[in-house]
Every structure is written in C-alpha cells, then in structure tokens.
Amino acid sequence: MQSTLRLAVAFALASTVGCASSNSNTASVPSSTPATVSGSATGVIPVGQEIDVRLQQPLSSASAKVEDRFETTTVVDVRQEGRVLIPAGSTVRGQITSVSPAGKIDRSGKLTMAFDRLTIGGRNYEIRAMATQAFESKGIREEAGTVGAGGAVGAIVGGIIGGVRGALIGAAIGAGGVIAATDGKDIELASGTVLRLRFDAPVDLRGDLISRR
Fold first, then answer.
1. What single string gives the DSSP state of each residue in 7-76?
2. Inter-CA distances, 95 with 23, 27, 88, 129, Å
3. What CA–CA distance (Å, rounded) separates 126 from 202?
4. pLDDT at 153
5. How far apart (Å, rounded) are the C-alpha atoms in residues 118 and 113?
C-alpha cells in the first residue's frame, strides 16, 4: 500500500514538473551558444534548420506595406562539424508579404514576413525562410553596456544576446509565419526584436566555404 502511494506521489510530481517545463519559455529563449547544423551534406543548410536573427528596424502592422523590405542580422554563429557556415552578424533580408492593421471593432493587427536573401561576407544566397517565434529584447545599445567597455561591439557580434526577455508578449505566430496581436492592437516589433527563422528550402553554402579558405 505504501509502495503504491509512493509511486502515485512520484507520478504526480513528475506530471507537474513536465507541465511546468512544457509551459516554460526558458528552453526556447535564444542562447549565446552557436547553432549547430546536422543531418545534411557538408556546407548545406537543411530544410527545417532554425536560426535566430535580430531585427534592425521597427515594424508595425499599422504602417507597414506589402513588399516593404527590412534587414535582420544573425545572432550567433551557425556551425557544422566545427566549421562556421553562417557567421554571427550576417545579414538576412526579409519582406512583408501581407499586413492587416488593427480595426476599430475587435480586429487585431497581423504581419506576415518572408525571408529571401542571406548575405555572408558580401556573397548573396537566395533562401526561403519564415518566422516561427519572436522574442522581446532591450536592443543592442542597452546590451552593449552589459558586456563591458572596449570589447562590447565584438562580443555582441560574436553572439552575446543579453537582454532577451522571452516570448513576445501580446503576439502569436501561426501557420505560414503570420504574426498576430492577441489583444486587438497592432503588432509592434521594436528594433532589436529577435526572430527565430526556419528554413523551408536547403541552402548550399559550399562556395562561400571554399572562398574563405
């Protein structure tokens, strides 16, 4: 009887911990650790690979227009077998593909973004990627002060992302990368917002690796 009770209590505790873990954003918040590519040919970013990028200008569903372009930069190195495929600070270009401003009667603002170009050391690559998550951030200016004078800029480009607060409050990303406000307001993405992107097509970077030798 006591053994059965202990098992029941242990199961209840495990279930509670499991629920807490599944509801927490801690595991998904961007890290300063380099991203790792696996399961693909050398020098190739596979379908489904995720990377984190930082928005370089604010975006709003109240003012954005379809076909507006914007830039993001990669937060950390993306590596494969110890080799850097995408250095931190590389540019990823995005474009607004659809936008709906908030209405006066119970309608939330929406933005859809597509990412179509990756630039590494001046070399451009066509890509297909979409946003899967968005994270609040204090932005690069505030983060620069957290890593000390002198080496601040280099440290941030190298992957320091202090100040990321977790999943963007008041917004949700649905199917097709649609970012929708959850409170009837417009979507407001500040400069410095970190977006997690997922590649929807493979990207062959072998030419860039050869040029870096």
1. HHHHHHHHHHHHHHHHT-SGGGS--SSPEE--SS-TTEEPTT-EEEEEESS-EETTT--TT-EEEEEESS
2. 31, 28, 21, 11
3. 10
4. 36
5. 15
The candidate with the shortest Cα–Cα distance to 187, out of 57, 54, 62, is: 62
- pLDDT at residue number 64: 96
Residue-wise pLDDT for 61-113, tens only, equals 999 999 999 999 999 999 999 899 999 999 999 999 999 999 876 688 999 99
The ranges assigned to domains in the chain are 30-211
CB 51 within 8 A of CB 196: yes
User: What does DSSP say about strands 188-189 and 164-167: parallel, antiparallel, or unpaired?
Assistant: unpaired
Q: What is the pTM of this model?
A: 0.73
* Alpha carbons 171 and 164: distance in angstroms, whole number: 16
Q: What gap in Å lies between CA 54 and CA 91, rounded to an integer?
A: 9
Give how far Cα 27 sits from Cα of 23, 31, 59, 83, 142, Å: 10, 9, 26, 25, 23
Question: Phi and psi of 113, rounded to 5°?
Answer: -120, 140
User: Which residue type does 21 have?
Assistant: S
Classify 30-211 by CATH class: mainly beta
Residue 75 identity (one-letter amino acid): V
**169, containing H or E segment:** none
